[in-house]
Amino acid sequence: MAQPSLFTSVIWSVSRLTQHIRSLLETDVTLQDVWVQGEISNLARPASGHVYFTLKDAAASLRCVMWRTDARRLNLPLQDGMAVEAHGKIGVYEPQGQYQFYADLLRPAGEGALYQEFLRLKSRLEAEGLFDTARKRPIPPLPRTIGIVTSASGAALRDMLNTLRRRLPLVKVILAPSPVQGEEAPPALVSALEALERLSPDVILLARGGGSIEDLWAFNDERVVRAVAACRVPLISGVGHETDFTLTDFAADLRAPTPTAAAELACAVTVADLTSRLGETKNRLAASTLNLLAARKSRLASLAARLRFSSPQRRIQTDRQRLDDLARRGFSALNHCLSLKETRLQGLERRLQALSPLAVLGRGYAVVTKAQDGALVSHVGQVQANDDIVVRVMDGQFGAMVRSKT
Amino acid sequence: MPKKTSPKPVEDLTYEEAFDELESIVAGLEGEQATLEEAMQLFERGQALVKRCGALLEQAELKVQTLSTNGLDEFEMDE
Description:
heterodimer; A: 406 residues; CATH 2.40.50.140; 13 strands; B: 79 residues
């Protein structure tokens, strides 16, 4: 080692030197965006809300800080001894001359590898078209039978049943219970799905309550995802929480953020909707029947009016009037005719009177007829003495006897 | 419109069957093609269907069965 120079021209202050080191570290691209894996120790969470800990492995340790704003977004409880993966950057704390790691993200160790696996499988299945929007089938709005694949003992099942009971108690539920985490979960989920599918429910809910990403991992299993994609019954997935996305969600016809939401989406129409629709239909039934009756009535009324118009009664009345007319005309013609005849008769009578031989009687003449046969006696030779005769004068007649012939 | 009403007694109909029939009856009545006698029969049938649907809605209780190796079992939720 070389002897230090005693008379160097520049002497640095501690601050200056520390700043120099800091700028070296903080301009290194690798150190400013890095994932580091280690075990947590010396965890401290003072009232400030910032989190201090040390990450270490068998050979080294690294002092770490997580500021309050990042710590607030942590969704796993930290504890000493926990193996984690931390993302952040290297910086220098000048007062103590220490370099340290400023963490902004923490996740359980191994999650990174799982995530890589997730992405690889996702892109492979995506390329196969398993997640295509065109494959998605509509969910029937009013199912009669709903199949559920989930754990028989989980809160998820209770939540779903409560939701269905509240929204659409008309529905029949068939539960195909299956473990939803662990090694045995994927094949059990697949066979539960297949068994349920054979019963042809109107829709299937595949659900699991929230948990860590490992807990949900069965729903990223290729066998499960393929069974979901192949399912002939429309399927709604409801796995974990709002923020959890599994490959099952991508393959399902509809993804619900939670099991409860899956149950809600499975009955778009609720018993309240049905009740109000029934009420409307009931009104329509009454209204349409009344309308129909009213229409029939008004058609009947118009037909009745037409019937009255063309009724024989009307013709009879017309004919009767015509008959009266005719009768009147007949009478007057007859009267006229009669009075004409009467006048003529009177004239004739007068003329006849004037010509009547009886009229001569008034002047003192008499008419003699034989009593025996009523023959008019106009010649002497017609009678013998003692013949009975009848003598007719102006105002009557009397019998007589012929006394002699001269 | 139905040529003739379903011979099934309303008590045997599911909600969906009853409601579907009710809708087609109303549609038939609204079409005003029915004879008066048909119309009165349809109306009566419709009223019975409304009653049936209402009762089903009121009495409905979620039925849950579990699929097991033996077939379907009634399901009891442990509270």
